[in-house]
Design goal:
- The complex is a heterodimer.
- In chain A, strands 1-2 form a two-stranded antiparallel ribbon.
- Chain A is 65% helix and 2% strand.
- Chain B has 11 helices and 20 strands.
- In chain B, helix 2 runs parallel beside helix 4.
- Classes of the chains: A mainly alpha, B alpha+beta.
- At the A-B interface, helix 8 and helix 9 of A face strand 6 and helix 2 of B.
- Bound molecules: adenosine-5'-triphosphate and magnesium ion (MG).
């Protein structure tokens, strides 16, 4: 049937597009704010009304990654021989602190960022891996009490997690898991695995059994059929599940704040903790936040095709 | 070389008894078709043979060796699924090569086998395509190709052409027949389409509700249905079946369908007596066994032509007498229009008698009437006499029945 678009429909389309543009701008505004502040000179960060046009600098990022000390009133500095990025620091009346051997001292941020990566990636891999295998079992085999078990798995998500924060803290202290990567990984995996099971079960249910059965009669074992047929077919679902698990683990704040303080601390509790020391430098905080946004953005961008297919899964599959 | 033997197979799904004591031997190189209505257990039986479904009891033997406890992978049986089950993330070539890679066939050999199978199926030009880009007929060819590449002992096909359109189905039927002729692999083919079954099978296995109803060549099953179910399941349009009473009148037999009475050879009485069955019978007669004449003739009963369905090569005419409808097959255009008064009789050679209690056929086979009609002058001079006066031509009933 040919669709002839009437002028009324065209107007409707324009209104819809205008609405989408407005909504997009509203949602992107905070991100723009963070992004622009991350590149502002310190004195322009807090002006009212906000400064829109400015000469971008990367000094906030230099400050983000380094430890600095105030210059003493008559301290001599060799401006000419200092590297370009340190010169920007001098302008603010500070210098980068060094060890006795002259090595640059890094701030706490890089370690926290790496902690975040370790914890989020490991827990995502574990949750998605275990979730996929569990979902496959539920989807393909007769499991006694399947409905009850699935409900039980889901029920672990029914309690607001923060309710168990104190018991968790005590248990972790007793088990020696406080402030350890392993502790956070276990927690985030446990938190995500139920979600992964349910999501993956939906995806695997959609893969016709005949694919594996064809592989079975063609001479493959169940495990080989799973690896060679089911996994590639479920790639879309795995990608979608991984993104969700990663985002949850990456953004988690409350438990990271309670269960870690230094060695295994992740970026979310660290970034606001900087505000507390003296007059906050908002440009540094914005730089830290801006960098923190990037991994999720990149991860989602890389998997975007899978995600789109995953979201409309039921719609396009017969 | 492969012979498949099923011995007393039973299978339940929960409380549902899906396969009931099925025993069957499929001979080497034989093409056997499982035919039955939806839900009768055809697929389940096939899957049990392939090892995709466990059976509750019984033995499945391949070349005399029990295989019911082997994994599907170790049975060396290929399976073609109704929905093809081509791996979407593989190309056609990879799909065809997949079974060979399972047994670690050297690359060069894989390539050679895949290409030769593709050539014999006429899909060489598709090897680099993805299954999703193909038509139903091509997908089906690839599914069969995938089953053939590793030269399995037996080939199981579950309604492989069920989802194709009518024209393509006919074409694929011929192709399947050719493939079987060339490869000669022992094959079991599942369908609920009787035309497919008739045209492909060496032997047809008619199933209903998990029970084997009859096993025989297409002609046997068509001409000598073992029971009411087979009689009515096979043949299109369906066989006329009605309760009947057989009486002896003037030394000959007479069958009554409500008010309609048809003469039958006297032998019938003796045969029924031999089977100790006179009452509670049904008479079955295929439309081509109902002979129609426009003129009144001895032994023919007056009826009225009702609906006429032209099939091109022949017509199916509903004959009415009171509430009783008898379906007859005539040459096309034989009965000019509905409402025409005509005369009909039943060819005893095509009459089937069934016991209403068990549904089983009594196995009565009568002779055709000896045509001796002195009152029709000149009828002997016409070699094709039937066409002038009868709706039925002189062809053999078995062939006539498959034309639909
Ligand atoms: N996995 C299963 N669990 C429970 N019941 C099943 C299962 N598979 C099949 N059945 C039931 O077993 C019976 C036989 O099914 P089967 O698929 O063998 O029939 P079929 O003859 O192949 O029918 P069709 O022509 O529709 O394919 C049906 O009543 C069906 O509902
Ligand atoms: Mg079936």
């Amino acid at each position: 049937m040919a669709v002839v678009s009437s002028s009324g429909q065209r107007l409707g389309n324009r209104v819809a597009i205008a609405a989408v543009v407005v909504i997009t701008i509203i949602f992107l505004l905070p991100i723009y704010w963070i992004g622009s502040t991350a590149f502002k000179p310190r004195n322009l960060a807090t002006t009212a009304p906000p400064t829109i046009v400015f000469q971008p600098e990367i000094s906030p990022f230099v400050k983000l990654f380094t430890k600095r000390v105030q210059l003493k009133p008559n301290e001599k500095i060799d401006v000419a021989n200092a590297p370009w990025w340190e010169q920007m620091i001098f302008a603010g009346g500070e210098r980068i602190s060094r060890t006795g051997k002259g090595e640059i001292q890094l701030s706490g941020y890089p370690d926290r960022f790496i902690n975040s990566l370790i914890v989020a990636i490991t827990s995502t891999v574990l949750a998605v891996g275990m979730g996929t295998i569990t979902a496959y079992g539920f989807s393909r085999f007769k499991v006694k009490g399947e409905a009850d078990l699935l409900f039980f798995i889901l029920s672990t998500r029914m309690l607001p997690p923060i309710v168990v924060a104190i018991p968790m803290f005590l248990m972790y202290r007793a088990a020696g898991l406080n402030d350890s990567h392993l502790g956070l990984i276990i927690l985030y995996t446990a938190f995500n695995v139920s979600f992964a099971v349910w999501l993956m079960k939906g995806f695997i249910d959609e893969i016709p059994r005949e694919y594996e059965e064809a592989a079975l009669v063609d001479g493959y074992t169940r495990l080989e059929a799973f690896r060679k047929i089911v996994l590639p077919e479920a790639a879309t679902g795995i990608a979608a599940t991984a993104v969700f698990c990663f985002i949850t683990a990456w953004n988690e704040y409350a438990f990271a704040l309670i269960l870690t303080n230094k060695k295994a601390q992740t970026a979310p509790p660290f970034i606001p903790s900087q505000i507390g020391s003296g007059l906050p430098d908002w440009t540094v905080i914005a730089a830290g936040t801006f960098l923190f946004l990037l991994p999720v953005a990149i991860f989602t961008f890389l998997l975007r095709n899978h995600l789109l297919r995953g979201m409309s899964f039921g719609a396009i599959r017969k | 070389m492969a012979e498949i033997e099923l011995r007393h197979i039973d299978k339940h799904f929960g409380v549902v008894h899906v396969i009931k004591d099925v025993s069957l031997t499929v001979k080497d190189r034989e093409f056997v078709v499982f035919l039955g209505p939806s839900g009768c257990g055809k697929t389940t039986t096939l899957r049990a043979i392939a090892g995709l479904e466990e059976i509750d009891s019984g033995d499945i033997l391949l070349d005399g060796k029990p295989i019911q406890n082997l994994r599907a992978a170790d049975r060396d049986i290929a399976f073609v699924f109704q929905n093809y089950a081509l791996y979407p993330h593989f190309t056609v070539y990879q799909n065809l090569a997949f079974p060979l890679e399972a047994v670690r066939t050297p690359r060069a050999e894989v390539e050679q086998v895949v290409r030769s199978v593709a050539k014999s199926l006429g899909i060489s030009h598709l090897l680099r395509a993805r299954p999703s880009a193909l038509s139903g007929g091509d997908m089906q060819r690839i599914a069969i190709g995938r089953a053939l590449v590793r030269r399995p002992k037996a080939l199981l096909l579950d309604e492989p052409i069920g989802s194709l359109d009518a024209k393509l189905r006919e074409q694929m039927r011929v192709e399947l027949k050719r493939l079987h002729y060339e490869n000669g692999s022992t094959s079991i083919y599942v369908t609920h389409d009787q035309v497919e079954a008739m045209s492909l099978a060496d032997r047809i296995v008619v199933m209903n509700e998990g029970v084997l109803q009859q096993v025989g060549t297409p002609t046997e099953v068509y001409l000598y249905p073992a029971n009411l179910f087979v009689a009515q399941f096979i043949g299109s349009p369906v066989m006329n079946v009605a309760p009947t009473v057989v009486r002896e009148v003037d030394g000959a037999a007479e069958v009554a369908l409500d008010g309609l009475k048809f003469g039958m050879p006297a032998d019938l009485i003796g045969m029924l007596n031999l089977k100790a069955a006179r009452s509670d019978l049904s008479l079955g007669i295929r439309p081509e066994g109902v002979e129609v004449s426009l003129a009144e003739r001895p032994g023919y009963r007056p009826v009225e032509a009702h609906l006429i369905q032209p099939y091109g090569g022949f017509d199916i005419v509903d004959l009415k007498s009171g509430d009783r409808t008898l379906r007859a097959r005539t040459v096309s255009g034989f009965v000019p229009r509905p409402g025409t008064p005509v005369f009909a009789r039943i060819d005893p050679a095509q009459a089937h008698f069934f016991d209403n209690q068990t549904g089983a056929s009594l196995g009565i086979r009568l002779e055709r009437f000896q045509e001796k009609m002195p009152e029709f002058s000149g009828s002997k001079a016409l070699p094709n006499k039937g066409l002038d006066h009868f709706g039925v031509s002189a062809e053999t009933p078995g062939e006539a029945g498959q034309g639909a």
